[in-house]
Amino acid sequence: MALYNSLLLVTFVSFIVLVQAQDQSGFVSIDCGLPDGSRYIDETTDINYTSHVEFFETGTSHIIDTEFRTSSLEIQFNNVRSFPQGKRNCYHHLIRTRFMYGNYDGQHLTPEFDLYLGVNLWDSVILDNETTIVTKEIIHTLGSDHVQVCLVDKGRGTPFMSVLELRLLKNDMYETPHDKLMLIARRVVGSISNISVRYKDDAYDRLWTPRQFENFTTLNTSLSIDQTSSNCLQPPLIVMRTANAPRKAIQYIDMFLEPKDPKGKNETREFTVLVNGEPMEPTVFSPRFLFTDTISNKNPVKGSRIEISIRPTNRSTLQPIINAIEVYQVNESLQPPTHQLDVDAIMKIKAMYRVKKDWQGDPCVPIDYSWEGLNCENPPRILLCENLAKLIYELILQRKLGKKQINGLASTKTTGEIKHRITEAKRGRKSGSLFIFFMSRDEEE
């Protein structure tokens, strides 16, 4: 099993209790491009989707080409919102973004653009063709009551978005010292279906895509699960019902299909999980029957190629299995944002004069996308100087206010500098995290 970049690793063993809370509290689901004020309930997932009007300040809505509007396509991809004006376009409350071009503009030219989380690069969005669906997801520990996600125009086509979703997680889920974990893969292993698992099976609406490992046997069970235990990552029940095992474990399939008394069997399943040849903790792992257990690496794994192997111990009579796996890349915050008091002040000016074009995201950083008309210094602070009066004067002209108001402001001069302390962000290399789920099948049906 080969992976790329630097990763964090976690492994789960056993079944998990399905979280009963199904009320969508903590969900924000935006169907980008939906007409203003519109909302609907998805017939497949029962998720409530709303239009962009409360979250987007710029952009235009479009419907994809009828050629690509198929019955199997998720309804959220029928509309997009594109951003032809401005270098950077931002909105709040994100965990997951999804994109499908669908030739909405009739140009047959798939764009390429960058995705920023706040002032730091998250990832690039590259679509192979009109029907390619790209999903970007990140787990982010918020330091305030909002987060900005920006689409950055690279001159390779107009940025757009199909879906924007926020899902609130429990505080003890995915605990790491890193505030951003970028999803590389989340797989349900051994699934006999080609349909992804999400809400309501997963109370947190994580997307689990099916994966069959080559030269592995598929296992599944309908055994009842001990629901008195818990696992903080809470993979959904349906995910933990399937698994892959090496082919030579085929001799155990009959035991799996025919339930037997666990106490009457003298079988042992234990193994070691190695990453690039180094064992993870615990070095010898024995999954409990019908419990969900997790193995995760404490420190990020670094390297251009990451290889994960699972090896049975000498005393193990049963082959290793794997139920599910999650892989994340640590996304470090290398650039500090503009000081919050500076941001609050300029945002009041923006709101007062209803500025939209080019005033998106952080006012000062990244420097290539700083707000037009502002002067900033490093560490990121806004310098208020004489040209601020001219800037506000131009904003008033844009709103076509009365001549008396314009003349009154034109004579105003503002000088000085906003001084604040700012903590330098620590710089570090990209690294990542991997979560693997296992369930013990010593007593297969």
Automatic annotation (TrEMBL):
Residues 1-21 form the signal peptide. It is a single-pass membrane protein. This is Malectin-like domain-containing protein. It is found in: Membrane. One of its GO terms (cellular component) is membrane. Keywords: Membrane, Signal, Transmembrane, Transmembrane helix. Its main location: membrane. Residues 30-330 form the Malectin-like domain.
